[in-house]
Write a structure and sequence with these properties.
heterodimer; A: 112 residues; mainly beta; seven-stranded mixed β-sheet; four-stranded antiparallel β-sheet; 0% helix; B: 113 residues; six-stranded mixed β-sheet; five-stranded antiparallel β-sheet; 11 strands
């Protein structure tokens, strides 16, 4: 039972570099989400998807892009990384109901 | 603005003792309120989920309460163990637009022997 898998687990970027974070789920969930977690703050929603081929903005979408080409995968892209994007990123997925919400183990990103 | 506020921010308790964490929310409407446990370096894991019509829900040594009138919830940990050291996050689910969750900032609990 893999659940939600995030890769990579750690990454250090230089300012201006780009990268893609991958999230994969094997639970056939319709909804997928990307959050960031910063010290002392609650998780904040970056982008989400309610189904294959659809994406929507969350609370803090600026500087990020996402794609959901396959139901099981949700990609988060940083086109030009900034130090303000240093954070821990969590992916989650859920069924159409509000239960069954599962988080990945996180990606720790440092932008220097 | 929809908010979820937790208190205290952190606490230290001795192994075997009980503790209670508090959560106040202004999110409205909401479909359910959840408590998550987040170990260091890991993603949040669900402990309890309560709909607005439920007053209490237990999961082993964790008991959550909900007062929808005062918009308050609490999480009680009974007979704490070292493995209870973690952050506990109160989360309110909004029923519209893709099951969005509003997260509290968490309470960091440290259980000492």
């Amino acid at each position: 039972n893999a659940g939600v898998t995030q890769t990579p687990k750690f990454r250090v970027l230089k300012t201006g570099q780009s990268m893609t974070l991958l999230c994969a789920q094997d639970m056939n969930h319709e909804y997928m989400y990307w959050y960031r977690q910063d010290p002392g703050m609650g998780l904040r929603l970056i982008h989400y998807s309610v189904g294959e081929g659809t994406t929507a903005k969350g609370e803090v979408p600026d500087g990020y892009n996402v794609s959901r080409l396959k139901k099981q995968n949700f990609l988060l892209g940083l086109e030009s990384a900034a130090p303000s994007q240093t954070s821990v990123y969590f992916c989650a997925s859920s069924s159409q109901g509000t239960h069954g919400y599962t988080f990945g183990s996180g990606t720790r990103l440092t932008v220097v | 603005k929809n908010q979820v506020e937790q208190s205290p921010q952190s606490l230290i308790i001795l192994e075997g003792k009980n503790c209670t964490l508090q959560c106040n929310y202004t999110v409205s409407p909401f479909s359910n309120l959840r408590w998550y446990k987040q170990d260091t370096g890991r993603g949040p894991v669900s402990l309890t989920i309560m709909t607005f019509s439920e007053n209490t829900k237990s999961n082993r040594r964790y008991t959550a309460t909900l007062d929808a009138d005062t918009k308050q919830s609490s999480l009680h940990i009974t007979a704490s163990q070292l493995s209870d050291s973690a952050s506990y996050i109160c989360v309110v689910a909004r029923p519209l637009a893709g099951n969005k969750l509003t997260f509290g900032g968490g309470t960091r609990v440290l259980v000492k022997p």
